[in-house]
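Task 17 of the worksheet. Students: predict the tertiary structure of the chain below and write it out as structure tokens. Keep your answer in the requested format; marks are given for formatting as well as content.
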Amino acid sequence: MDYRVSVAMASYNGAKYIAEQLSSILAQLSLDDELVIVDDCSTDDTVHIIKSFADQRIRLYTSPQNRGVVKTFTEAITASTGDIIFLADQDDIWLPGKVQAILQAFKDNPSVNIVSTDATVIDQNGDVILPSYYDDRGGFTDSIWRNLAKSRFHGCLMAFRSKLRPLILPLALYHDVWIGLCNAVAGGKSILIPQPFVAYRRHGKNESAPLNWNGQITKRAGLFGRIFIRFPRLRKSL
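Model answer:
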């Protein structure tokens, strides 16, 4: 089976890095694939840079007001039409072979709904800080309780089957762990490709920058509550 790919990206004031990221993504997509970008009312040159690519595979939506990363990714995923949906941040770099490796993992594992890869971690200048994101994170797991305690799903490293969309939309709170948890509660499987296929950039201004401890507790409690409310529907889904 040949999968059609959608890449869902949320952009916001990403002019410094987004051109390099778009180039790294488009180089791996076929002519039938798509890159769906929802811009969250950027005030810099982000939208101009995206349009300058003049690539028919890019579908750009612009928000008239800033709504935040969760609602922006919700719109991008909703607009995606591919069989496999990749999540992408605006400031990372996709390493060669990412799309091919993930699609092959889906073909080889028909019961798997989410595939993640490892990543190297780079700084604002592109220098490697850590050779493995998941070694630093304590490894990967799709365990519900362990992910509620500390997320092992990282959006920019994930791809999932489009059949998950009715289960996960609208996104909530930590959108990446939300996707992983909804799949797990519904009985779906997730796997990790241990090779790094993303250069994940940490520069202090990431949308996913860590919260303080009180903020973490509050959001984790909210995430648990949303999962609990949706639990009966999720268990009947897959």
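Marker's comment: The domain at 5-235 is CATH 3.90.550.10 (Spore Coat Polysaccharide Biosynthesis Protein SpsA; Chain A). The first strand starts at residue 5 and ends at 11.
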